[in-house]
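Sequence in, structure out.
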Amino acid sequence: MKQVLIVGFVLLGLTALAQQPPQWKGKFEQLDQMLPSPNEYRSGSGAPGPKYWQQQADYVIDAELNDENQSITGAETITYHNNSPDALSYLWLQLDQNINAKGNNTAKTTNNSVRDSIDAATMANMASMHDFDGGFKIKSVKDASGKALPYTINQTMMRIDLPKSLGPGQKMSLSIEWSFNINDRVKRMTPNDGRSGMEFFPDDGNYLYIIAQWFPRMCVYDDVVGWQNKQFLGQGEFTLNFGNYQVNLTVPADHVVAGTGMVQNLREVLTAEQYARFEKAKTTFDKPVIICTQEEAVQREKIKSKEKKTWRFTAENVRDFAFATSRKFIWDAMAVKVGDKTPLAMSYYPKEGNPLWEKESTVAVKNTLVTYSKYSINYPYPQATSVHAASLGMEYPMICFNYGRPAKDGTYSDRTKWGMIGVIIHEVGHNFYPMIINNDERQWTWMDEGLNTFVQYRTEVENYPDMPKRRGPADQIVPYMKGNPEIQRPLMVNSESVVRSNFGNEQYAKTATALNILRETVMGPELFDKAFKEYAERWAFKHPKPADFFRTMEDASAVDLDWFWRGWFYTTDNCDMSLDDVKWYKVKKDQATVENKGKTVAKGDLATKGNGTKPSDFSQGPQYFSVIPTDNRFYGEFANRLDDKAVISKMENKNFYEITLSNNGGLVMPVIIEWTYKDGSKEIERLPAEIWRINETKVTKVFAKDKEVVNVVIDPLKETSDISADNNVFPKVAQPDKFDELKKKGK
C-alpha cells in the first residue's frame, strides 16, 4: 500500500539514522545468503522436500571374537539401495579401525611436545611406542556372484569400483571378509581410539570388550555433498545410513553379550532361570529385574569356558551396530512406558561397577527415554542399553558405553554418582540425536552433541533436581566465553577444526547453553518446545543439515531467529552489555516556560549537577524537563488533535528513567532489567534483542515508572551469559582505592 510520509515521521526516521553506528555489522541481516538455496529435496520451511531421498544399506554379518588373542574375524554381506537420482560408478566405505593402524594420519597430525617429568603413558603415545598391529585386514571384496571387486584403501576410507554403474532405484549386494586386532583401551594410542576396544582386569584375569567401528560401513551419499568421505581423524564422529541388520556374534560360551537390536535366540544362550527373569522384566515398570546376577558373573569369571556360543541379533532401521561382551557382566532390565510402546531399559556391568550401577544405571536409562520422548519423538526402538566401561562415554543405536566406577570397597562420591548419571543420560540420549535424527557428525558436531546436551540438561532438571548442572545454565558458559579468542571457533566449522581443549565447551556446552537461552529467554518454553519437537518429527530417520534446523525453528514458531543463529553459531562473539548511564527525570509541574517552547532551563532542568559532572547515582534527585504543545506539523493530514493538557497531566507524577546501554562483546541479546524501588519492591522488565537492530553497539531508552527507583541491574538472573557483571549495575558499585588497599597490606 502506498503511504504518505508526514513530517513527524520523517523527523523520527532521521533521528534513527543519526543513531546508526559508523560501521554497521549487519547482525540482524537475514541468513538467506549464507544458507543453501531451498530445492525439491529440502524446502525453505526446513522440512524435507517433496523429492527428498536417502540411501539405505542393509547388513548380514557373521563374526567371531577370539578371547585368547583379542581379535575379531568377520564376513559381511551389504545390500546397498541407490535411492538417489544419480548413477554411481564406485562406492565409498568407512574403515574406522584404521585409526589404529601404523602410520595413521591421526598420529601424524596430533600436536605434542616434550616436557620435564612427563608420565610414561603420555610419552609412549606421543612417540608411538606401542607395538600394536591395528587396523582392518581386508581379506576379500566380492560381488553377489563371488567375483572379486577392485578396491583402493585411502587411510580410513575404501573405494570399491563397480564393473557397471549402479543406476537410480537399483540395488546391489557385495561381500567383504575382514579381521582386526582389538586395541587395549588403557594405552590410548591415538586420541579417541578408546571409543572401542578391551579392558583387562588383572584381579580375575578377564576381559571386558566394547566393540564399535568394527566392520566396513557404507559412507553416506546425499543431496548436499555427494559422498561424505572425509577421513576419520578421531574427533569428528560418524555419518551413516539407515538399514536393517542381522548380526551373528560367536563368543566364549560363558560370555553375556549386549548389542544393538534384540537377541533372537535368548533361550539358547541363557539358562532357563535367566530367561524367566528376562520375561519378567518385560512387564516390570517399578524397578529393574536382575537377569544375570553378580553371583553368576563371579562364577563365570572363575570357569573361563573354552566352548563357544552364537548370539543372534536383529535390528531394523538403525544406522549402525555395536556390541559389548564379557563373562564379567551382570545384566538388569525394566520396562518403560513410552506412548503405546514399552521398550526395555537395560544395563550391563561388571561387579566393579556395583553397588552404584545396580542402583542408578537402568533408572537413568528409563528417565532419559521418557524425557527425551517428550521433547523429541516417542522412542521407537525395543530397548536401550547402558554398558559400564572405564573412563568413557560413547553412543550407538540402542547401546552406549559409560563410565562411573566406585572404589574397590564399593564406596563412591557424589561426584562419581552424578558424573555417571550425567553421562548415561547423555549417551542414551544420543539414541535420538543422532541415531534417529541422523545428522552428519563428521561435519557438524554441534547438531548431535549440542542438541543432545541441551535435552540432557532438561532431563537432569526434571528428574534430578539435586544434581549439579554444568552444561545448559547461561552463567556456566561464561568462563569459556571470556577465554582466549584465538583458540575459539564458531560452531559452524568442521569438527576437526575445533581446538581439542575447547571441544566440550564449544560443541557441547555452547550449543546447549544457546538453546537453553533460546528456550527460556528469547522464545519462551511453549514456542520453543513446539518448534524443537517439529524439527525432531520432521527429520526422524532422515539426514538433517544445519539449515533444516534453523529454518524449522523459525517456521514453526514465527520468531525471526537469524540474528541468534548468526551470533551464537557463526561467530565467537560474547555477550558483554554495560549499563553506561541512568538518568532520572520528572516533568516540571510549573509549565510557565511552555510559552518559551522549552528554551528556559530552570534549576536542575536537563543540567549537570553540582560541579558540572553528570550524576553517578540518584542522590541529587531528578532532573526536570518541560513538555510543550505538539506542533501541528506532527499531525500531517490528520484533522484530529491530541489533548496535550490531558497527556501532560498523566506525566506529572511519573518518574522517567533514561538508560544507556553498550554492547561491548558483539553478541546481541535481549535486555533484561531489574528495577528496585524506594519501597523495596522489585520489577523485572524484558526487552527483545531487536532493541539493537538499528544501533548494534549502543541504545538509549526511556521508561516511565510510578515509583522512585534506587537501583537498576541488567541481567539480574544471569540469563544471557554476560561475561562481566560489574558493569551491569547502577548506581555503580564503589571500587576500593588501590592505594588504600596497598596501605592496608603494609606495602
